[in-house]
Amino acid sequence: MKIGDFATLVRPYKGYRNIELIKRLPYTWLVRICGSGLELEVYEDEFVLD
């Protein structure tokens, strides 16, 4: 896993599943939802790499 990788959320967030990894935080990743631009923090077990 590295910054810029694309992944898929295990559980969709408001209908969105595709995310881009932006920044590694101590326990989570800051991600951007593709299509909406919303940024969220998610744990590594909440997504799978594409």
Describe the structure.
- By secondary structure, this protein is mainly beta.
- It has a single domain, classed as Roll (SH3 type barrels), CATH 2.30.30.
- Helices cover 0% and strands 58% of the residues.
- It is built from no helices and 5 strands.
- A 5-stranded antiparallel beta sheet has the order 4-3-2-1-5, with no helix packed on it.
- A hairpin with a 2-residue loop joins β1 and β2.
- The model has no long low-confidence stretch (mean pLDDT 97).
Derived from helix and strand composition plus strand pairing, the structural class reads mainly beta
Note poorly predicted spans: none
Number of DSSP helices? Answer: 0
Radius of gyration: 9 Å
Mean pLDDT: 97
The geometry reads as globular
Instruction: Please give the order of strands in the largest beta sheet.
Output: 4-3-2-1-5
Secondary structure elements and their pairing?
Layout: E1 6-13, E2 16-24, E3 29-33, E4 39-42, E5 47-49
Antiparallel strand pairs: 1-2, 1-5, 2-3, 3-4
Quick overview:
With 50 residues, this protein is an all-beta fold.
Features:
single chain, 50 residues, mainly beta, SH3 type barrels, five-stranded antiparallel sheet
